[in-house]
Amino acid sequence: MVAQGSWGKYSPPKPSPAQYYTLVTVLIAYSLLMGRQAGLQPTGEWRLFSWHPFLMTCGMVGFAGLGAVTKKLGGYANTKTHGILGWLSLFCSFGGIYCIYRNKENNGYLHLSSPHAMVGTGVVISCVGLGLAGSIFLHPDFGMDKQNKTIRFAHKTASRLTLMLAWVTAFLGLFGIAAENTLLLAAYGLPLVALVPFVLM
């Protein structure tokens, strides 16, 4: 909780080295394994479409999650690494967007025709805006207002809310193509719920 007049002063406790490396391992393993499983739906075959859920999971859960956890460590080097991971998450997601765009073009499907697509687009646009704001205002080397606690708090809060929405959107996308696969939905969704307090809080 942030007391009146202290915007940006609240910081969650830093993860211990053991907690940090456990989260790193879990985020990487989850992104690769569950991204692949999502990519195999619903046919069980890898195809152009498969790269969309794989790259979006790696981007929005893997790289973005690692960036959020790394920022919690604090310090100059971790702040820069956080920014690099954030942009890597976007580049990975751009690849996923390109794949779904090409897949729809190849098959004559409409673009932005589902809530998943529209919310996902909004999430990516938000991530671009947050990345630009972080780079311009908060970069530890050349940020225009890097000591401004209000901007830092707003950036942190908006980023975590955006990532939470990204995770929900990813789950809804999987639900749309594998609604009857309860085991897969649980394997994809429950770890995300469990990670929220450690990554996004």
UniProtKB/TrEMBL annotation:
Keyword Transmembrane: yes
CDD domains reported in the protein's UniProt record: Cyt_b561_CYB561D2_like
Keyword terms, alphabetized: Electron transport, Heme, Iron, Membrane, Metal-binding, Transmembrane, Transmembrane helix, Transport
Protein's UniProt keywords contain Iron: yes
Molecular function terms from GO: metal ion binding; transmembrane monodehydroascorbate reductase activity
Cofactor: heme b
GO cellular component: membrane
The protein's name in its UniProt record: Cytochrome b561 domain-containing protein
Organism this protein belongs to: Fistulifera solaris (Oleaginous diatom)
